[in-house]
Prior knowledge:
The chain is built from seven helices and ten strands. By secondary structure, the protein is α+β, with helices and mostly antiparallel strands. It folds into two domains: about 5-100, Putative Large Serine Recombinase, Chain B, Domain 2 (Hect, E3 ligase catalytic domain fold, Alpha-Beta Complex), CATH 3.90.1750.20; about 110-225, no CATH class. The strands form four sheets. A three-stranded mixed β-sheet has the order 5-9-10. Helix 1 (about 5-20) packs across helix 2, helix 1 (about 5-20) packs across helix 4 and helix 5 packs across helix 6. The radius of gyration is 22 Å and the shape is elongated. The chain starts with a helix and ends in a 12-residue tail after the last strand. The structure holds zinc ion. Zinc ion binds next to loops.
Amino acid sequence: MVNEAEAERVRGIFQLFEKNRSTECTLEELQRRGWTTKAWMTQGQKPYGGASFNEHSLKRLLSNELYVGSVRYQGKLYRGEQKGIVAPGLWTRVKVILEALPPPVAKPRNKNGALLQGLLRCACCGKAMTARATTHAERRYRYYVCHSGRHAGGSPCPGHYVPAQTLEESVIEHLRGGNLQHAAARKLVKAYAAGTGGPELVALAGAAIHSVFYDGATQEVTIRLRPIPEGAGAGKR
Ligand SMILES: [Zn+2]
């Protein structure tokens, strides 16, 4: 079920992790090598992937008992029908390292559930704009800020700051009046109207929107949608 090239990669990932003893360093190296989750097996033997590894998918791979030739049935391990592709010694050493890792810390990156995090760029300078929040007089204010505006001494960028809600509403408004063939965009607009928030809305935004450019000088918003997958979306309203 796993071909030799894939088996070689799986072993490579185990060895990398054993050497680095860190998911972060391993993920960086996988990114550098361009190794994605493509064609790896999950615990349930369903193929998944094509995406970059993340903390979760890497840990899942490293703790996959199939790779050592075992299968789990009702909580117990049994020797599987397939030969393992990772040496039992390596597999066990990796398991020990995995278990000793500190518990994952929630990433602060998008704790605000900012709709446009990772999608928004400043039209004035081309840099990414990131979500921030501050609390003032017990009220929380969310905004997006241009990176070039954050370095003292750098040239001031007129697009450096925009209140998050205003911009998000404007983006949704644009989508509402936009391409009706775009199923992911329709879904996002619908979810926003229904009051969906947090990670779910962020995921929908990521599925629909390729990028958003905000021009702080003219307050113009330019949205680029993700391409519609072939055979989807057309003809439906
Ligand atoms: Zn800028």
